[in-house]
Design a protein that fits this description.
The complex is a heterodimer of chains A (217) and B (253).
Chain A lengths: L2 H21 L4 E7 L5 E6 L2 H13 L3 H8 L3 E3 L2 H8 L3 H7 L4 E9 L2 E10 L7 H20 L14 H14 L3 H14 L4 H9 L10
Helix pairs in contact in A: 1-6, 4-5, 7-8, 7-9
Chain B lengths: L5 H14 L6 H15 L4 E7 L5 E6 L2 H13 L3 H8 L3 E5 L8 H9 L4 E9 L2 E10 L8 H19 L7 H29 L3 H14 L4 H10 L3 H6 L4 H5 L3
Antiparallel strand pairs in B: 1-2, 1-5, 3-4, 4-5
Helix pairs in contact in B: 1-2, 2-6, 3-5, 7-8, 7-9, 8-9
The chains are: A alpha+beta (217), B alpha+beta (253).
Chain lengths: 217, 253
């Protein structure tokens, strides 16, 4: 990622965190991304409290974000006072102390490509409703798109979910470019954008070997 | 159709109970369930879709390649018996594909082309929530499921839901959401691994998946774990150079 791009990614993700707080009944939101070797670090937060709670997880080595990465699935804890202390003996008291009663972590992932985690915090206990979950997952997808597309909002029409061929193509392109799964998807999305084509069509051409990528972007 | 023998049915439930141990692979389990369901009711093929958080159905497992293609096709066009079973929470029974062209025009054409003449679909339910659907394809007209057949397949469909819940006591709705997301993401990892194998070994996706599954089976590993290793390490070469078990090599899915 070139520096100016990285800046715009952070700016976009901060705005996304602020929107999460505004759109959902959340008091805080933070977003951490993976750098090397599955080490995660804070990248964006809606406010200083969220930032501190997000970073504390990496200091303590426990928390919803840590669990979400390890299991590759969301971690939804509607009542930290009840479920937190056993699960996160050090982290839970700190979150409660900061005035948060519920926390929800959403992995930013495409199959085995783990890009980061979006954490939401809520002051009052309670689960997210079905409609709120849908909004939270949509925000998580948006965050994935921002991370993959490097801050240049490529195309909001390009969804993260896709037909199986899209992910097969991702695996093939990873080998073709000798890179990571995330890089492979970024290349596929960029190609679709540059040529104004649908992701599904590009994916099919990759799988049928009409289209291949090389090591140099 | 016919009444299923109690012996075969009990064998399947024993196999299910055997599989549902602490550390089982949900995708393996769902695949096993589609294969067993197909053989049990004498159906040609069985496919299974689960809904993601937005209520969009996604492909999870199928007993063979033809069913897999039809399931994915249903997802792409948002039309077909699985969708109806999912939306209405009611089974679609004994649909003769030569008479339902108005109901599902595109799906019917493709299903007939694939050699199927009948279809059934069963909602996958967890409590009052419908989380997916199971399709049963027949190559004989109507499929002729009687009440006993319907109950058996619905029972097997309920078993799929139990597998998804995984934990012995799922107290909270959140756990279902968490598990479902993990299952959907694991399916993506398998597709990614198929792509890696296909590229490395110049294979079709179908053959790549066979190799992946054979390797997992012969080494007693979980499908998802092998897939993850393939995309995260240099494991593809191991899978591609592993000798094919004679039986597995001879078997066509």
């Amino acid at each position: 990622m070139v520096p100016e791009r990285a800046d715009s990614v952070v700016a976009e993700l901060c705005r996304l965190c602020e929107r999460a707080v505004a759109d959902l009944p959340a008091a805080g939101a933070g977003l951490s991304v993976s750098a090397v070797d599955k080490q995660f670090g804070l990248l964006a937060a809606a406010d200083p409290v969220s930032e501190r709670l997000e970073e504390l997880q990496f200091v303590l080595g426990e928390g919803p974000c840590v669990d979400a990465v390890a299991a590759g699935q969301p971690v939804l804890v509607g009542d930290i006072a009840t479920d937190g202390p056993v699960r996160w003996p050090a982290y839970a008291p700190a979150v409660l102390e900061a005035g948060m009663s519920a926390t929800f972590a959403f992995p930013l992932q495409v199959g085995a490509a783990q890009l980061g985690v979006m954490d939401l915090f809520r002051a009052s206990p309670g689960e997210l409703s079905a409609a709120e979950l849908v909004r939270a997952f949509a925000l998580a997808d948006e965050a994935i798109a921002i991370l993959l597309d490097g801050g240049t909002r490529i195309d909001e029409e390009q969804p993260i979910a896709g037909p199986p061929e899209l992910f097969q193509a991702q695996g093939m392109v990873m080998v073709q470019i000798g890179g990571t799964l995330a890089e492979a998807m970024a290349r596929i999305r960029a190609h679709a954008y540059v040529h104004s084509r649908r992701l599904a069509d590009i994916a099919r051409e990759i799988v049928t070997r009409e289209l291949r990528f090389d090591r140099d972007g | 159709m016919t009444t299923v023998s109690a012996e075969r049915l009990s064998k399947i439930f024993v196999e299910v109970a055997d599989t549902l141990v602490d550390d089982f692979d949900l995708l393996d389990f769902l695949h096993m369930l589609t294969v067993r369901t197909a053989s049990l009711v004498g159906a040609s093929a069985v496919g299974l879709l689960l809904a993601d958080q937005r209520g969009q159905l996604r492909f999870m497992a199928a007993s063979d390649e033809k069913a897999r293609i039809l399931e994915i096709f249903q997802v792409q066009i948002s039309e077909g018996p699985c969708f109806d079973a999912y939306r209405t929470a009611k089974p679609v029974l004994n649909a003769d594909l030569r008479e339902v062209a108005e109901r599902w025009p595109s799906f019917t054409r493709h299903a007939l082309d694939a050699g199927f003449v009948s279809v059934h679909a069963f909602p996958i339910r967890v409590r009052r929530e419908v989380i997916g659907a199971l399709n049963v394809f027949g190559s004989e007209v109507g499929g002729n499921f009687d009440d006993a057949d319907v109950q058996i397949v619905q029972a097997l469909t309920d078993v799929a839901a139990i597998g998804l819940l995984q934990e012995r006591a799922v107290r909270r709705g959140e756990v279902l959401t968490e598990q479902l997301q993990a299952a959907l993401n694991n399916r993506v990892i398998i597709e990614q691994a198929k792509g890696v194998l296909a590229q490395h070994g110049n294979l079709t996706m179908h053959v790549a998946f066979d190799r992946l599954r054979q390797y997992a089976r012969s080494h007693n590993l979980r499908l998802t774990d092998v897939a993850r290793q393939i995309v995260e390490t240099d494991f593809a070469a191991d899978v591609l150079t592993a000798p094919l078990a004679p039986k597995a090599a001879a078997r066509r899915r």
